[in-house]
Amino acid sequence: MATTADFKNGLCLEFNNDLWQIVEFQHVKPGKGSAFVRTKLKNLRNGRVLQNTFPAGVKVDTARVERRPYQFLYKEDTSYNFMHAETFEQISIEENLITNPQFLKEGCVVDILIHSETETPLTCELPAYMEFEVTYTEPGEKGNTATNATKEAILDTGAKIRVPLFINTGEKIKVDTRSGEYSSRA
Fold it and tell me: Which CATH number covers residue 162?
């Protein structure tokens, strides 16, 4: 059990007979009336985001979850196969549990959030920044850079992103896997 004073980003709750993770929260003390906590919760089973308000000091049930390192092995139809980095145990995860699966590379180490009581995988999170090789992009033209112009590029995983005009085919770049945007050259 926890109270609203224990809220922090990433805390997992059992709420409305489901598992929810706090994405963001804000303690509010209006001039008139009692204090409350405004939260944005993400459902760990289907990814739905819900806004909810808790009265200050209310008790909520916390869920025991663990982040475990897994290495991506291969894709099979709609499921992805991973191996635990220490025990070599293999698990299969559906595509809808993975954030931005188009950036997964073989051998990549990810964090899988596992519900401790039922041992079921909840979400799979990639590293914040990863390096990729540009397999195809149109050649950039000199003199077109008066503004922050971008062009489409295809990465070695098949993902398509927007990159600056100076990036050419064969270059290694860093990509923010959370937003899918170009970060820098590698």
Answer: 2.40.50.140
Which one-letter DSSP state was computed for residue 31? S
Burial call 73-104: b when 16+ CB within 10 Å, e when fewer: eeeeeeebebeeeeeeeebebeeebbebbebb
Q: One-letter amino acid identity for 106? A: E
pLDDT tens for the 186 residues of the chain, in order: 889 889 999 899 998 888 999 999 999 999 888 999 999 998 887 778 999 999 999 999 998 888 899 999 999 888 999 999 889 999 999 888 888 889 999 999 999 988 888 888 888 889 999 999 999 998 876 665 667 778 899 999 999 999 988 888 999 999 999 888 998 888
| Residues in contact with 32: Cβ distance below 8 Å, sequence separation at least 6, in sequence order | none
Task: For residue 76, give Cα distances in angstroms to 23, 40, 116, 127, 164.
Answer: 31, 34, 26, 22, 33
Q: What is the pTM of this model?
A: 0.77
Domain with 21 in it: what CATH number?
2.30.30.30
The first and second tokens of residue 14, run together, are 């059992």
Contact 165, 149 (CB under 8 A): yes
